Amino acid sequence: MRSFLEAIVAKQTGWVELRYHRRLLNDFTVQKGRVDVANSSVTGGIGVRVLENGSWGFASTVNLSAAAIESAIETARANALEISKIQAKKIPALPRVTLGQGDITLPGYDELMSRPLEDKLSAMVSMEREAAGSASQIHTAMASYREIFEDKVVVTSDGASISQKLVRPELRLVAYASGDGEQNIGHTSLGVTGGWDCLFNHHKAGAIIEDTVRSAVDLLGAPHLPGGKTKVILEPSVVGLLSHEAIGHTVEADFVMSGSVAAGKIGKRVASELVTLCDSGAAEFGPTPGGLMAFDDEGVPTENTVIIEDGVFKSYLHNRESAAHFGVAPTGNARAWLYHDEPLIRMRNTYISPGTTSFEEMVASTDEGFLLVGAGSGQADATGEFMFGTDYAVEIKNGKLGRKFKEATISGVAFDVLSTVDAVGSEFKWDLGAGYCGKWQPAKVDAGGPYVRCEITLGGRQ
Amino acid sequence: MSLSQTRRISAIDEAGLLDRASALLQVALEQGADEAQVISRGVEETKVRYEKNDFTCTSTNGKLTLSLKVYKNGKKGTATTNELGVDALADTARRALSLASFSIEDEHISLPENGITTEVPGRYDSSLAELGTDDLHALAAEFIAAASADPRISLDGGQVEVTKYCEALVNSNGMSRTDAVTRLDWTVMGLGKTETETTSFDYLSDSTWSLAGATEKAKETAAKLVSNILQSFGPRSCESYKGHIVLSPAVVADMFLGPISYHVSGSSLMDGKSRWEASLGELVASPSFTLVDSAHNVKLMGATPYDAEGVATKPTVIIEDGVLRAHLDSTYTASRRGTSSTGHCGGMHTIEITGGDSTREELLQSVDQAILVERFSGNVDPLTGDFSGIAKGSHFYKNGRHQHPLTETMIAGNVFDLLKDIHGISKDPKPHCGRFIAPWILVGGVSVTGA
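Above: the input entities. Below: the structure tokens describing the complete assembly.
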């Protein structure tokens, strides 16, 4: 496919990018002893992007013939010329950068492809059965497995020619508990870039049934969290969500150019000096995060981008266009969900670097507050105001963990919250679960960090 | 510029899709499926994207998907493909049957019989289907100009998209359906910015089936966004309290529809997850609350003649004067529960909440203090009904008088408690974002947490 696309690009004038993307997605869902989902889905095609007359044009086709691809290139050119009539600021020529060459297959792809689907479904049947029978309060359990095989080829007229294969398996377990007229859900999800063993070596996999069931049962009859600003310890999954939602989105360069709160912050202190926050395409501090990739969808090698170093703002996240605008090198953050999506600036694996305080020391030195556990969904604002849910909270009093509370939604202003960080843990985990990010199109991402202590607003009951 | 030059990358029409669907059905049956269903979908779309306060890209896509469901020996498997090669149909059937071979037998799986559907006209406009890229750009330019009419507005993103969507559905019980719609969708996200202040962002979207009046409708969306943003300058927090809030139609939908849909759905009912399993005929909400799935109301973009497995849709009263009137089923959940399909495979279609007898201002004047919540950024647990999140674009009122916009204000409570604590409903329900029709609703018992 790579040489086929190279031959087509070689015949073109002007800047052209061809991106072949074929996705094989297999998924199973088992619930109450029945198979609700047993599905295999193939989606493939070619996305074409051109830069013509200072404007982007895009088109895609499911037809992989040379004639169809050349027709799509012409459509993309026509789109670019048409939009250039209403586009105020023309895009300058893209800067010359080192672009990817060659073929790469990330670990796990071949192993997971060769493992029989029957074995994968069988594992879910067993997991669901065991979870459903592990406590009298559990009336329903649901186990889901999904694997996404990605085959991509990116060829550009200025030198990128890269093929990349990777696989991202995910596991979800949900338990429904009831008692005294109340129902509650416990859930655990995990996702990696790698094979079957890699998924089941995830730090949450070993106790997934016990943790999920206990979460569902323990919160039956648990009190609602009181609202208000308070000291909290965030577990690694919540630290990851904070890094992603509250900081990561505001530092995407396209968002910065639209006026986000991060504009003009380069070189300024924005957080406690204990905070170093990064976004990486690689596996920093822990293995096989869910957003792992060697090259982005513009063919740019990924890197570890330091966004905040010791509390000082260092960098935005870039694609080739925004890097040219800011006069810096691209950071490898251009990503597209499917062949018919244009590459946008997206995060990969976003995290806070580990510090030196143990979790036990952090709890022991907290007079009053809450430990927040389990990342839910969230949103962030241009002002840096963010909101996201967590699974539950554990009360901390006089340095000891106590009762569990449910319904823990938290809020704050990104850099304000990071300025209140007074302890950063030493134990690092990737822990966004089977998480996806949404920004016009989905993206598979991961996030994590160590335990972090800070002040935050809890949206509980009055 | 003609359509053939700009958008028609792959030929998509109902007859072609029906041929493809029938061909795959035949292959699946020849490979040994006892029963099979195929849905083939074709999409032609062109979208114009706006970012960083400028137009950034126009893209054109042609998409084609074949989705196969097979039953073999009481076991189910599904597979989809968008590949066009000669082996794609056989490979898709092989994958679905392979999955079915090691799935678990389920005596309740079956496909619906063919039945009569009601036409839902007014969803296809040939002038929209043939809209040229230059005309789309002109419409987008007017929309964006209206959304950036004030120098304090900064637009983070926007998109205008024209789509022609065709579908064919066939099954081995002789069912054969085709449908085609056109739609124009627009969305815009922006914030207010001065030298001293940046407001929270707001976003709005809307849709239409036809080109007539589309520009004016899009400009109304833009004007609403501008108004929302300009009113949000100078926000302050308020004291924490537990009491009344007024929900906008958008918030009514975001908070209420998930939990209601969850507890009336056949899948929740058959698994013992629904709190309303034995509640038909009982009061589950305030007597002022009525919710209907009108199914065919073309003011909303969910209007459809049949559901996701081809069963005819029809208007369904779900909650009437606070009383639960219906549970919603697919063929499968109906078989499990010993009932009949209500045409709700895939969920509700077009949702309308009936209006009351007050104006929005009268709702605000009827209580000592309230916050008016324009947008909810938070989480709602459909199982328990617990919700918690930020009241975005919101305003604080005392004795019916506007005090100030709000910032960093969180609200929390329980949807099922709110449904029974409705103090007033506005009399002017309107379509919102093409998704639902809802009024403003005054509720009590909400925890409001200020900064």
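Note for the figure: DSSP finds eleven helices and 23 strands in chain A.
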